[in-house]
Amino acid sequence: MLDVRDLTTTYGAVRALDGVTFTAPQGRITAVLGANGAGKTTLLRTLSGLVPAASGSARLGDTDLLTTPAEEMTRAGLAHVPEGRGVIAQLTVEENLRLGALGARGGGRKADLDRVTDLFPVLGERRHQVAHTLSGGERQMLVIARALLADPAILLLDEPSLGLAPRIVTQIFDLLRGLVDDDGLTVVLVEQNARSALSISDVGLVLDLGKVVVHDDAAVLVDDATLRHAYLGF
Amino acid sequence: MAERTLALPDRLRRVTDDTLGRHLLAGLVGAVVVVLLLSFLGGFRVSQLASFSYLAIAAAGLTVLTGLNGQLSLGHGAFMAIGAYTTAVLQRTELGLPLVVVLVAAVLVAGAVGVVVGLAAARLHGPYIAGATLALAIAVPGLAIFWRDLLGGEQGLTVPLPDVPAWFADAVFFLTATDPSSSRYVAYLAGLALVAVLVLLANVARSRTGRRWQAVRDDEVAAQLAGIDLGRARVLAFVVSAACAGLAGGFMAFVVRLTAPSGFTLTLSLTLLTAIVLGGLGSLTGALIGAGLLTFLPQVVTSVGGDVGLSDVQSAELAPLVYGLVMVLVILLAPGGLVGTIRLKRAERAARRAAAAGATASTGAPTSADERTRAASGTGATTGPEDPQHDAPPSTERKRSS
Amino acid sequence: MQQLTTTLLTGLTLGAVFSAFALALVMIWRSTRIVNFAQAPMAMVTTYVALVLIDAGASYWVGFVAALLSGFVLGAVIERVVVRHVEGKAELNAVILTLGLFIVLHAAAALVFGSRFRSFPAPFGVRGLTVGDSTIPLTGFGIFTLVSVLVVMGLLVALFRGTDIGLRMRAAAFGPEVARLLGVKVGRMLTLGWALASVVGSLSGLLIAGGGLVHPGYMDSVVVYGFVAAVLGGLESPGGAVVGGLSLGLTLSVVSGYVGSEVVPLAALLVLVVVLLVRPGGLFSTVHERRV
Ligand SMILES: Nc1ncnc2c1ncn2[C@@H]1O[C@H](COP(=O)(O)OP(=O)(O)OP(=O)(O)O)[C@@H](O)[C@H]1O
Ligand SMILES: [Mg+2]
């Protein structure tokens, strides 16, 4: 379980996160929603150690995330898929995947690579292709597959639907739901696309100017028309 | 009507408010200082001042290129070589050309080569310009060996000293009751040329042209959108800078009295770079300070070396060691150089004062903060020559296409 | 005919050395976006380490290995202590920093080892080989040069393509932030990259020095040639650096043989400028330069 208390992150004078408190329950998908600039990306980057927190706490089980350096995160069981498709474009598909497995808690296993290519057959077909030749959807699959290879307990995803056709988005979201239900993975899903994100999530969290303004069951958020109009725009 | 009643201090202030006037005034003071110093100092100091002058001329030119326009040249030693060889060749002819004509020729030839190199450099950035000009620094001395008959090969060309014109001898005799040597004559000219170059460059930097150069340095896309021809701005900056180096080379030929490839090694180019980094990129005062350190520090350091028991040869290496270390430290600790750091401190103090003043803080702080980022982000973003409140576009971290 | 073969063979060995040096520059450029102008004096310092050992009675090979090891340490230390602070900052600062290091290493070497010319031994003959009753203009040391450069390149390819650490190094170079998130210790990889590049630079220093004279400035022109070779290859590509080095070696050797050795640096400058103006992405680039 991810437990975040009073988390504050500043960029100079800008308070991008301002006393954020929430828990992301184990084996559930927590959607993090909010307008542009609300602090969603900052939240994920603070959790994974890319940005230092100003104050507060964030714990994953027994691990204090705020004192764990970013490069130790995969070993602590946290995988972060950054905003804007973090493929390493110059490496091949297979090398990207191998890299993911290298960071795994127990050290990578060949078997996992096979499992992931079962999940995403297209990656198996393209394993020797250089990553920058992949399509947008394929890249998104690659980064998710790569994150899964690290065998994480919790997966942080930053706008995986960005720039993808609705059909691909549905495909990816269904896949996430499957992983959560079957393997007990915990997911924190940052999305602009509130409607489809909530449709697969268990819990919703809405950020506004760095503060949590709503934290409730996903179903409640979807049903509350005032909330939807105020913060989610649908 | 009111203007007539202005008191003298007010009138003076009006002159100093006007930049051109202020530069001219500073130039006048500079010229007087040069004349006084050179009239009463001994021979050794005179030649040291002459060396300082030519180094400072070259450093000032390089500062304009690197500091104002963001182009790094590691090849200015080559332009000095071109100026020096032009001078040496002309001076050795039987034509008996006046000194000024010889020096102008040095400036023109170096400037002409500067056009060619500048045209190439204008299309390159950062490390590429550095590499290309580095190649230039290494390539040019080889030409002196290739055209052995004209340029004297490894041995180089000795440079005959110029005759001292009668009016000059009379003037000096009037001041000091001694006859000036021709090396003193050269030193006078070098010192005055330095003052003239500084006034000129300071004005160019403040002019539209100078602001264009800075705009190109700070953000080439924005500059292009503002209608600035990037290539022209870059080439012009390069030519001005190369011409300064040519003039410096011309004086160097007269001061050293020998023009040989060994005088124009890579070390010379790097030395110039050191001068402008030490002083603070983009600031003419900085270039002066840097050139001063380069001229006078070796003596001090070398004698310290002797005191701690190093041989003469070893002591001679101490000076470059110190420059190099200081250069590394400047980049690591104070990328604005000496002048930039002083400005930064001043800006911080001003910001504190403004904050203390309370109400005025809201107007005072932003400008100081702006200046602080500019000074702190270093070479890509130093302030304009001689003027802390210049109105260049706000500079952020430079982003250039790659 | 004889002269042409000599010229070409000389060009080939010289080109191999340029390739190695260019490779060192490319490795550092790819990982830290810095052109390491201090590579030349770094190699020079390590060659002096070898020379001191050899003069003290050690065998050539002991000196050789010691030079490469000290190259490794020097590269790592310089990255970790100095260069780390300018990585990712304004590119002008990085360039000036490496030039500052250039001056420091030069002066330090002159202080410690003296600035006179000293001869450096070669482990193999520097005369042409005799086959039957004719001499072919390929020297034992020339063959050694070619072979050692080939071996080093083979090892680098094996490292980068075939091992996990090589994969981590490439990831750290291409996508530092993503690499960190995947558990790669990026700082350590960059240090290792500088260390290895410095070893390759040291090798080229030893090869230039072999059978010739060394002094604190003996590598200065090599940094220019290495840079030109790297740019010929596009500055990004190790393979390009090798091909660039070989073509530059051949070109310069022809210029030196038929025009004069004094204009060699000028020829290098011309090659550089022409390539940069005509094909800014290097001779072998297929993609066009990106603009903002
Ligand atoms: N590196 C930075 N330096 C300064 N300010 C930053 C930085 N990164 C983000 N910010 C600011 O912090 C605030 C939150 O940014 P963040 O990227 O977390 O928003 P977001 O919710 O992810 O937005 P989007 O939906 O557009 O991705 C914004 O006001 C942004 O301008
Ligand atoms: Mg975001």
From TrEMBL, chain A:
Family annotation (Pfam families)? ABC_tran
Give one GO biological process term: L-amino acid transport
Extract the SMART domains matched here: AAA
Q: Which UniProt keywords apply?
A: Amino-acid transport, ATP-binding, Nucleotide-binding, Transport
Q: Which family does it belong to?
A: Belongs to the ABC transporter superfamily.
Q: Which terms does the record give in the GO molecular function aspect?
A: ATP binding; ATP hydrolysis activity; branched-chain amino acid transmembrane transporter activity
- Does the keyword field hold Transcription? no
Query: Which species is the source of this protein?
Result: Phycicoccus avicenniae
Question: In what residue span(s) does the ABC transporter domain sit?
Answer: 2-234
Source domain of life is: Bacteria
Q: Mind telling me what this protein is named? A: ABC transporter ATP-binding protein
> Which InterPro entries does the entry mention?
AAA+_ATPase, ABC_transporter-like_ATP-bd, ABC_transporter-like_CS, BCAA_Transport_ATP-bd_LivF, P-loop_NTPase
PROSITE patterns hit by this protein: ABC_TRANSPORTER_1 (PS00211), ABC_TRANSPORTER_2 (PS50893)
From TrEMBL, chain B:
Topology in the lipid bilayer is annotated as: Multi-pass membrane protein
Q: Name one Pfam family in it.
A: BPD_transp_2
Q: Which GO terms describe its molecular function?
A: branched-chain amino acid transmembrane transporter activity
List where in the cell it is found: Cell membrane
Question: Which residues does the annotated region (Disordered) include?
Answer: 355-402
What InterPro entries does the record tag this protein with? Answer: ABC_transp_permease (IPR001851), LivM-like (IPR043428)
Q: Which intervals carry biased composition (Low complexity)?
A: 355-368, 375-384
Determine the domain of life of the protein's source.
Bacteria
Quote the protein name from its UniProt record.
Answer: Branched-chain amino acid ABC transporter permease
Automatic annotation (TrEMBL), chain C:
Q: Which Pfam families match?
A: BPD_transp_2
Subcellular localization is given as: Cell membrane
**GO molecular function terms listed in the Swiss-Prot or TrEMBL record:** transmembrane transporter activity
An example Gene Ontology biological process: amino acid transport
Q: What is its main location?
A: membrane
**Matching InterPro entries:** ABC_transp_permease, BCAA_transport_permease
Q: Which residues cross the membrane?
A: 6-27, 34-54, 60-82, 94-115, 135-160, 190-211, 266-287
Has the keyword ATP-binding been applied to this entry?
Answer: no
Task: Output the Gene Ontology cellular-component terms.
Answer: plasma membrane
Q: Does the keyword Membrane apply?
A: yes
| Membrane topology reported for the UniProt record | Multi-pass membrane protein
Keywords, in A-Z order: Amino-acid transport, Cell membrane, Membrane, Transmembrane, Transmembrane helix, Transport
Source domain of life? Bacteria
Q: So what family is this one in?
A: Belongs to the binding-protein-dependent transport system permease family. LivHM subfamily.
Put simply, this protein is called Branched-chain amino acid ABC transporter permease
